[in-house]
Design brief:
Number of helices: 22
Strand content: under 5%
Largest sheet: 2 strands, antiparallel
Strand order of the largest sheet: 1-2
Radius of gyration: 27 Å
Number of domains: 3
Length: 592
């Protein structure tokens, strides 16, 4: 997960507007006297210097220069505080992170600066393309934050309060506390249904604490969004991510239809395997019989647990595998690894993310690595984010030193994360037993397809639930959650359960109205795989294409990473892959 950046701040810079004037200074000759000194010496100078009006281009350039400098300073303070809090879990550090986020949001809340940006964009015909793009991106940051100081303070403080609860909460079974990793391990290994249920319930317990707070925050977010002219917070965030809501829903409708039958068939086979392993009837399967508390990941295949390829390794080996692989494809990341934090410890954020500290050379990752296939995936995933950040053209203006879109960096992360389930990569890069991999190749590929389908259907749940949450936060959200889960994930809801299970998902707070970008990232990743295959003139299935090619890294740097945010995403995707973003390439991968 990447850190969200649409934020804002107190105006401490000089404003340059459309009507600003500059008094010209008369030139001096080599003697230091003015041209009038000499023949006209002694005569009164009755000339009046006329002010010179700056061009719109000059005004915009001066405004942006100062805006970008202050933005960089304030974001640097935020990323430093955020990194410290995520690593320590300390109250004081979360408080400081909240202060720096508020400062950045307040900066972008300036109505005077926002008005200037609107004025420049109204005259964009007089400006060059790079200037216009900087202003468009700045507009997105300012629009969301045209709120009062009290509103901004409340939004930040309540968000940080929930974020801290998610980071530090430990579920209980009886009187014993467990970390998320420990509880997830129970779901992965325990065969007793009652014990599985206890672990699942412990992973959901945080929802009872955060649920009412998220609903309260949703109401506050909606009120803020409506004051800015949007239908609700979901509508605002979608639009300020440069999405057209109708286009997003159209893509997801296509994804739902194209994956429905493949998902139904794959899940039926998987359910039969799970029921056999856990000695329960297929009709009695409940959410805790799956290995992930949200059924967002595929359980291990009974024919092959991919962890077998990593069970002899240590945590450090997972890190070193990623370092070596990325170096081999001309995307060296040893410098990034040196600044990152990969190992689990008390108080530290239990999840994983990548952050660019300064939109320059300081890019860091936070993980809690274990020697498993899932953490190998996560290691490659977060490194995908990291190398994207690393090779964005640093000569670009500060606010364009960002991925073309948040889903394009997710696409790169998913592109690399998926290699942990790629037979050829397992042999070539991870050093897996070639004989075993070849024997189980069909199983590995089927598992990868199952993973894609399960995640796609889960992402649909998040999209539809979050949209409904903000359309009406006062409805019965507990029931709504399971209604959507049953329809899209085809899971049976636990009998007589009325708990805010949805609220145990931290993304509702740390990355609100974001999850659809993961799904769009998967679609773009499928289109990227097809584009890489064309570039390499690979004629077979993309799953049989070797990724240990320097040309891949070089192409990604030039075509995907370096342009940063200079091009709006619809055109960017079409330029890179040759087609508009859709579910077609993804459906082709999972449908056969």
């Amino acid at each position: 997960m990447k850190m969200n950046r649409l934020s804002i701040v107190l105006l401490t810079i000089v404003m340059f507007g459309a009507g600003s004037l500059l008094t010209a200074c008369p030139g001096k000759d080599k003697t230091g006297t003015s041209p009038k000194d000499g023949a006209d010496k002694g005569k009164p100078d009755t000339s009046v210097e006329k002010p010179v009006e700056k061009t719109m281009k000059e005004q915009a350039a001066e405004f942006l220069q100062q805006y970008q400098a202050e933005y960089a300073r304030l974001e640097g303070a935020l990323t430093s505080a955020f990194w410290k809090a995520a690593n320590s879990g300390a109250d004081a550090d979360f408080t400081e992170a909240g202060k720096t986020e508020l400062a950045l949001r307040t900066f972008h809340s300036s109505p005077e600066m926002f008005k200037k940006i609107e004025g420049f964009l109204a005259a964009k015909a007089e400006l060059d393309a790079l200037t216009v793009r900087q202003l468009e991106v700045a507009f997105l940051a300012f629009k969301e934050n045209q709120l009062s100081a009290d509103q901004l303070k409340t939004l930040v403080e309540k968000g940080k309060e929930i974020e801290k609860l998610n980071n530090t909460f430990r579920g209980k079974i009886g009187d014993q506390e467990y970390s998320n990793n420990e509880l997830l391990k129970m779901l992965a290994t325990e065969k007793d249904s009652k014990k599985r249920q206890a672990a699942w319930d412990a992973l959901k317990q945080v929802g009872a604490v955060t649920g009412p707070k998220i609903v309260e925050l949703a109401r506050i977010r909606n009120e803020a969004a409506r004051s800015l002219g949007y239908a609700n917070f979901w509508d605002m965030r979608i639009r300020l991510q440069e999405h057209d809501p109708a286009t997003v829903m159209e893509i997801f409708d296509g994804l739902e239809k194209l994956t429905a039958e493949p998902f139904r068939k794959a899940k039926a086979k998987m359910d039969a395997q799970i029921a056999k392993r856990l000695k329960v009837k297929v009709g009695d399967l409940l959410p805790w019989h799956y290995d992930n508390p949200f059924f967002q990941e595929a359980p291990p295949s009974p024919e092959l647990d991919l962890d077998v390829f990593f069970k002899t390794k240590k945590e450090q080996d997972i890190i070193e595998l990623a370092v070596k692989f990325f170096a081999e494809i001309d995307l060296p990341m040893d410098d990034l690894a040196a600044k990152s934090d990969f190992l689990e410890r008390k108080g530290k954020d239990q999840h994983a993310f990548c952050i660019t500290m300064d939109r320059a050379g300081d890019v860091r990752m936070l993980l809690n690595v274990k020697p498993t296939a899932q953490w190998m995936d996560t290691m490659l995933h977060e490194t995908g984010h990291a190398v994207y950040y690393k090779w964005i053209d640093r000569s670009l203006p500060f606010n364009l030193r960002e991925a073309a879109h948040i889903f394009t960096t997710e696409a790169i992360a998913m592109l690399f994360g998926a290699l942990a389930k790629n037979p050829l990569w397992l042999v070539e890069a991870a050093g897996a037993d070639a004989r075993l991999v070849n024997q189980k190749k069909a199983v590995i590929l089927e598992q990868r397809k199952l993973e894609q389908l399960i995640f796609a259907r889960w992402a649909m749940v998040m999209l539809h639930f979050e949209k409904a949450l903000y359309e009406n936060p006062d409805q019965d959200l507990n029931k709504l959650w399971w209604d959507i889960v049953e329809r899209l994930q085809m899971l049976k809801r636990p009998p007589n359960r009325n708990a805010p299970d949805w609220a145990s998902k931290p993304h509702f707070t740390i990355a609100p109205v974001y999850y659809h970008n993961y799904a769009l990232g998967e679609l773009f990743a499928a289109q990227l795989r097809a584009a890489v295959a064309r570039n390499l003139k690979h004629g077979g299935p993309v799953s049989e294409m070797s990724w240990k090619r320097k040309e891949i890294g070089q192409w990604l740097i030039k075509s995907v990473f370096a342009p940063g945010m200079t091009t709006p995403w619809p055109r960017f995707v079409e330029e890179i892959t040759g087609v508009k973003l859709s579910a077609a390439a993804f459906a082709a991968e999972v449908g056969n």
